[in-house]
Design brief:
single chain; about 350 residues; alpha/beta; Stationary-phase Survival Protein Sure Homolog, Chain: A; two-stranded antiparallel ribbon; 8 helices; about 20% helix; globular; binds 2-acetamido-2-deoxy-beta-D-glucopyranose; metal ion binding; nucleotidase activity; signal
């Protein structure tokens, strides 16, 4: 799907060809995000992964899709009515298509989970010899995705959760820089998007180097949610240039959830933040680990690496409390006992 009126500058790193002497050339990676295929963060990460010799593809939304979580929205029309983010795709272009300068870079007019699936289920099987995808990386998002709140909210993390559920190891990255068009973004080594790309690629390199084979990159049902600190040109201290990873957890004292705020003067609603015993509680995993919300904001030049699972069932000792039918006293028994209507299978909800 090429269209001649789309002129995008060649990325310098496209010149690095894959070759059989590079041990990474047999590892296929899909890059996606929610800030669109034209954002500086994703283009920089794509380039950096290519420099390492990976077989990299980008399948990312045509336009900004922040806050769409794991929703699976597909194109509604055959052609783009508003064009691509930052004018990167002309109005009227097909709802999916390829960068004129790189046949591994594609946009899709849908949410991140859908754009990634366009790669997995359409483009790679049909156009790229049905290559096996070893890893999905999503981001880096323009803004942190911290705390358990993000698992339903973040489009970046939504694509990661979806990939993990498909049995593909996946990492979501989020940073703290702003929305920028890649073609106009700084090429300085001190630009946050370039520092983020290096840090994110470093974590991929570690996983790949330590894996025995494809199946040991990450365990089934397990993904990573990584938040990158303020760095380079968005770091007020000017100190953070080489980001170090540290294991963290999503819950903890600094983990927030959203609430609704109402302004009496303007009569407007806006999202506010709160926390609760539930947002702080460690019910799963290693409770010794520090809280990612604290680490990324206050610990300096560390990337928080939280290990997540798509098995959302509560752990047994917590779930045991829910066996209300066998117990006399519970604080949270439902007030109404209804009956379950028959479930009609539908892929949409
Ligand atoms: C092949 O990959 C190796 C290892 O990364 C690199 O040193 C070499 O320059 C590459 N060769 C070509 C022709 O790209
Ligand atoms: C990118 O830079 C060009 C040339 O300065 C300018 O015309 C264009 O509006 C900029 N695009 C964006 C999205 O900032
Ligand atoms: C819409 O996209 C299709 C390809 O999907 C293309 O053939 C057609 O020309 C486009 N229509 C318009 C009005 O641009
Ligand atoms: C791609 O490979 C998968 C797994 O081996 C297989 O199930 C599928 O049929 C293949 N699809 C195509 C289009 O060849
Ligand atoms: C790629 O090949 C190397 C050996 O060169 C092997 O160790 C590694 O497991 C392979 N990776 C994948 C994803 O198959
Ligand atoms: C409500 O909105 C007004 C006007 O924007 C602002 O000045 C005021 O600080 C807001 N009040 C609160 C409690 O946020």
């Amino acid at each position: 799907m090429k269209f001649s009126n789309l002129a995008l500058p060649l990325l310098a790193s496209c010149a690095v060809a894959q070759n059989s002497t590079n041990p990474n050339s047999n590892t296929t990676i899909i890059v996606t995000n929610d800030d669109s295929w034209a954002s500086a963060n994703i283009r920089s990460l794509y380039s950096e992964l290519k420099k390492e010799g990976y077989n990299v593809f980008m399948f990312a939304p045509a336009v900004q899709q922040s806050g769409t979580g794991g929703t699976f929205n597909l194109p509604r029309a055959a052609n783009l009515t508003k064009g691509g983010e930052f004018g990167s795709i002309p109005v009227g272009a097909p709802n999916w298509g390829q960068d004129d300068n790189d046949d591994h870079i594609w946009y899709f007019d849908g949410t991140p989970a859908a754009a990634m699936s366009f790669g997995l289920d359409y483009a790679i099987p049909r156009l790229f010899n049905n290559a096996t995808v070893d890893l999905v990386v999503s981001g880096p998002n323009e803004g942190w995705n911290i705390g358990p709140n993000i698992y339903t909210m973040s489009g970046t993390n939504g694509a990661m959760y979806m990939a993990v559920l498909r049995g593909i190891p996946a990492i979501a990255y989020s940073g703290m820089n702003s929305h920028q068009y890649y073609a106009n973004a700084s090429t300085s080594d001190n630009a946050a998007h370039n520092i983020y790309a290096k840090a994110a690629t470093g974590i991929v390199n570690n996983l790949v180097k330590n894996a025995k084979d494809r199946a040991t990159l990450l365990p089934y049902g397990v993904g990573l949610s990584v938040n990158l600190p303020r760095a380079g040109d968005v770091d007020p201290t000017g100190q953070c240039k080489e980001i170090k990873p540290i294991f963290t957890r999503q819950t903890g004292p600094a983990a927030i959830v959203l609430k609704l705020s109402y302004n009496e003067t303007t009569n407007r609603f806006s999202p506010g933040i709160t926390n609760s015993e539930a947002s702080k509680a460690c019910l799963n995993g290693d409770c010794i680990l520090p809280d990612e919300s604290d680490v990324v904001a206050n610990w300096g030049c560390y990337a928080s690496v939280s290990v997540i699972t798509t098995d959302y069932d509560a752990p047994r000792d917590v779930a045991g409390e829910v066996q209300f039918l066998n117990r006399g006293e519970v604080k949270f028994a439902p007030r109404v006992y209804g009956s379950f209507a028959p479930v009609e299978a539908s892929p949409y909800f």
